[in-house]
Amino acid sequence: MKKLLILLITVLPLLSMAQPFHVTLFGGLANYQGDLQDKRYTFSGSKAAFGLGAQYDLNNHLSVKAGMMFGKIGADDKNSDNFYRKARNLNFQSNITEGQVLAQYDFLDLSEKRLSPYVFAGIGFYHFNPYSYDTLGRKVFLQPLSTEGQGLAQYPDRKNYHLTQFTIPFGFGLHFKLADNLVLGYEMGFRPALTDYLDDVSRTYVDHDALLAAKGPLAVEMAYRGGELKDGDPTYPVDGTQRGGANRKDWYYFSGFSLSIGIGNNGRAPKGLGCPTRVY
To answer: Are the beta carbons of 67 and 54 closer than 8 angstroms?
Structure first.
């Protein structure tokens, strides 16, 4: 993440010295899909997201963008229709901070058209840190607790997951030229997390006593929370019992409105929107 931030700090001033250059803003929603949320997108599980960056037009169709995205994701087994998940009673939240460099392609020339569909793809790095709240309402970060035995000697194949990861952002949207140097867009952006631990859930439960000895009672409490339910089963599952599904990695999404503000004359003003030409 630090390397990407350095890259963005270097690239943005260089872009601002060139034409055509745009400042970009984003506002919308963040969402997640993983072991606590099967559906790719739910409005009920969405949380606010925003972003800012810079764009440089290589021509009237192709642009290069660099920027930062900020959002929050989360899910709760209480909202699941699945009996097993409700009994498991896990939940998590996490802030997402992403740095990205993208290529964007408008299918139509916005110097001639008001509307154009577009697609984008690129590379990025993001930082996350899943957390929950214990029975006393205290915020607990989950990664240090090794809830699935990560880093424990008894489970050498389970390594601690990194909180900063690589991703490949891609998506599509629709641009609408509002005025000279002002473009409104609506887009859907998809991010493969390339980890199964956005939600701190992936594989199976580990031995109760091994986890207790290595990480303490809080780790056991956060690993299985069925006993917190009114009629829930307080018995911690035996070692090897399914906890999540490691066959599929997690995803997160950004969807919402973007605004591109051109700096100077970028040559993409649509016909009929620019200042009239006076003839003497």
So the answer is: yes
CB-side neighbour CA atoms (13 Å) of 212: 8
**pTM to 2 decimals?**
0.86
Q: What is the pLDDT of residue 41?
A: 78
Q: Which domains does the chain have, with CATH numbers?
A: 2-263 (2.40.160.20)
| Cα 121 versus chain centre, distance | 14
Spatial distance between the Cα atoms of 109 and 206, rounded to a whole number of angstroms: 57
Q: Tens digit of pLDDT for each residue in 90-118? A: 999 999 999 999 999 999 999 899 999 99
